[in-house]
Amino acid sequence: MHLPALQRIMAQKNGVMPLPLIWNQKTVDPRDPDSLPVYQLETAMGSAISVFDRAGAIRVPRTRFIPVKNTNDLLAVRSNRYMLTDQFQIMPDPGRKADDIQIDLDPVYYKFIDDFEHRFSTGAPSLKNCHYLTVQGDFTFGKNLIFTKDTMLINTTRNRFNINDHQRFSGGSVLVTDAIKRTQMIPVNKRAKRTSIISESKTTDTRQYS
Q: Which residues does the annotation mark as catalytic?
């Protein structure tokens, strides 16, 4: 940004940047949708480009721009899909096989940072070779987990399901249910080739799901 141009605009506008106002409907307690409704007022700094004459933008590669807007993005950045350089830059790991990954964490259990941190308390799983990761329901993740290909985890129970350390999920889906007392393989979603259905318990076994 050209600072003299910014100084000139601020002087012309009496110290207030004329940015359009954005209002978002929220609740006083974001965890309680039934709490008092309020409006959050804000401005978007990106819209300031319209204030400057002959303004332009510089396109940079994703290696220089890795936005973290929610816990889905945060999980990807914390995983081994990215690396921290000696210059403290977060860069994509050149050894990863998948250029992009789609992560969809259940917002009921992973939207807020404290809930997210509690369920990934031992660190992010390996996602270097994962294309899609979907988590529906309540899980906690052990250490040294590996997810590859297209993986979906589904917990249909009301209880939290703990995934033990050192497990590998080579695609497919894992469905946790209290209605089925044995393990079997059935089709689940379009992307996954098969599904492991396991009975509800406090911890998983040490088998490999593939």
A: 69
